[in-house]
Specification:
globular; Rossmann fold
C-alpha cells in the first residue's frame, strides 16, 4: 500500500479554493486514501498549523474548522501521528531544514519506510532530497 505524509500546505490546498491547480493535484491522493488504496499520514503538528492558518489567515469560523478537522481525521485511509522523534527532528533542524515544522514532517518521512512527503513547497522538497527523503513533485 502506498504511504504518503501530508504537509500543511497540501492539506490547506485540498480544503480551500486558494489554488485550484494545487487542489486538483492533491485530490487524487485523498481519493486513493478514501478508497483504502493508500494511507495518508498526518502529524498532529500539521493539524495545529492547519487550524492556525484557517483561523488567522483565512478567517474561517472556528466551528467550521472543527468540523473540517473532525471530518478529516475520521476519513478512511487517514492516520494521525502524535509521536515525535525529537532526535531525528533536531538532526535536521536548523542546519538541513530551517523550518521546525518541516523538520517534524521530515522526521515522519524518515521513520515511515517507503513513504513520500506531499508538499507544494519547492524549498522543502529540495531539503528533503538533500537528506534522502522522497517527496512528490506536485
Amino acid at each position: 500500500m502506498k504511504k504518503y505524509i501530508i504537509d500543511t500546505n497540501a492539506l490547506i490546498s485540498f480544503v480551500t479554493d486558494r489554488n485550484i491547480e494545487q487542489q486538483q493535484k492533491v485530490a487524487p491522493f485523498f481519493e486513493s486514501a478514501a478508497q483504502l488504496k493508500a494511507i495518508l499520514f498526518c502529524h498532529q503538528h500539521v493539524l495545529t498549523e492547519f487550524v492556525y492558518v484557517l483561523d488567522k489567515v483565512y478567517h474561517v469560523p472556528k466551528s467550521d474548522i472543527g468540523r473540517m478537522v473532525t471530518d478529516f481525521i475520521e476519513m478512511p485511509g487517514i492516520e494521525i501521528i502524535f509521536e515525535c522523534d525529537f532526535r531525528t527532528v533536531f538532526s535536521y533542524w536548523p542546519d538541513y531544514i530551517p523550518d521546525f515544522g518541516d523538520a517534524v514532517i521530515a522526521s515522519v518521512g524518515k521513520n515511515i519506510k517507503g513513504s513520500v512527503v506531499l508538499t507544494f513547497d519547492q524549498k522543502f522538497m529540495e531539503q528533503l532530497k538533500t537528506i534522502g527523503i522522497k517527496s512528490f513533485a506536485m
